[in-house]
Every structure is written in C-alpha cells, then in structure tokens.
Predict the 3D structure of the following.
Amino acid sequence: MNLRDRLFDLRRQAGLSQEELANLLGVTRQAVQKWEAGLSRPDMDNLVSLANYFKVSLDFLVTGKEPSPPPSPAPTIVNNYYHEGPDRWHYEYKSKRTLFGLPLVHVNLGRNAWARGIVAIGSIATGAVALGGVAFGLFSLGCVSLGLLLALGAVSLGAVSIGGIAVGLLAWGGIAMGWLAIGGMSLGTYAAGGAAVASEVAVGGAAVAGQLAVGMDVDGAAKTILVPLEGLKGADLDAARAAIDAACAEAPGFVPWLLKLFLTP
C-alpha cells in the first residue's frame, strides 16, 4: 500500500469527502483528488497537517511503518548499587573523596567482590583498614587476614596477629607462632599455652625451651620448673616468677608479665 492508498483509506474511515478534507487543509478539491490518484504528493506542511488530523505518525503516513522505539539508555551507576539474581546479591559503595588515588571508603559486598580503599570492606579487601573474607592491610580483620600492624582472623599474619592460626611478631591463637606466641599450641622465642615450645622461655601444660621451661611436663631447658596439678603456691610461685623475670631480662617488660599470668591455676 502506498501513500495515495493510505490517504484514501484514512479519509474514508474518517467519513470525509475529498472536498471536506480539502477545506480542512486549505487546499482545493482537485489537489486532494491528485494526491489520491498518485498524480502528485502533498508537500511537507500538508503531510504534517494530514498526520495530525488523522492522528498517525509521519512515518506511517509516508511509508506505512511506525518508527522503531529508541533503545533504552543503559543505567549509570556512580556509588551505590544493588544487583540481585537467582544466585547473586551485590552491593557497592565508593566514596568520591580519595587519598593516594584510592577512595577513602570502599564497600564491595557479594561473591568475589574486591574492595580497595583506605578503609575497605568486601569479600576480598585491601586497604589501610581492611575487613573481609580475605583481608590485607595495615589493620585487617577477616577469615584470612594479613596485616602489617594488626591482623585478626581465622588465619592471620601480622606484626600483632590474633586468630585460630596466628603468625606474627606477637601471635595469639589456637596455633600461634611468633617472637612472643600465646595459644593452645605456641612456638616462639617466648611461648605460653597448652603446649609451648620456645628458644628462650616456655610456660605451659607441656613446655620445651632452651633457657627456662615451666609446666606440668617440661623438657630441653637449661632450667626447668615442674608445676604440680594443683599449681604453684607460696614460695614456689614466687620462685617461678623470679625465674621468669631473670630469663626475660633482655625482653620488654610486658613479656614476663604475660608469661607469669600462666602460672596462676
């Protein structure tokens, strides 16, 4: 169907004669007759008037086809967004302010989401302060935690390390390894716990040390102090404390203080 046929159909559907349509448009009846006969075509002004009167688009009037709808613009996400699916939830926030090229705060939560910022919180987090399933930072908290200064986690590594398995200069955990190690099983220069092994001083249920071993089961030390089941008391307790102070003479004061805590039953 071409323009003349569409014009004829639209006029008949509106119940107009050629003369009535011509009067509405301000043209002669002969002009309308020529349009419908295909002998001439309406100019642009008349095409617009015809489209407006019959309430159709110019595309439909001229070509018989409606214009394709424009594509929906893609959403722009700046700071916050949620994504939900059958097996995934995701949330992210990133502060506009930055320091050393990193956002001051970056929160990125979801499967395998990586947060990187001065303060970072995410499934994987790296930052000065990092909290996440896997965390790396000056101060970090996570299931697996690596902190240059402080690390807390199921598995932690840091200058000060606290966790189920802790490795650090100062380590405290179920299994602890460090210069000063305290835990169920501890290994270090100075160690205390259920089973303690140390190159200098060990205090624990079972203690093995190079210089001083204090415990219910002791071995390997230049000096050993055997602790009875009921614990040390009176003069024996004072003597054990004095021995720890002497063996830790080269260590900072908090080291013998912590080790002596394990003498109390």
Notes: The first strand starts at residue 81 and ends at 84. Residues 55 and 258 are 89 Å apart (CA to CA).
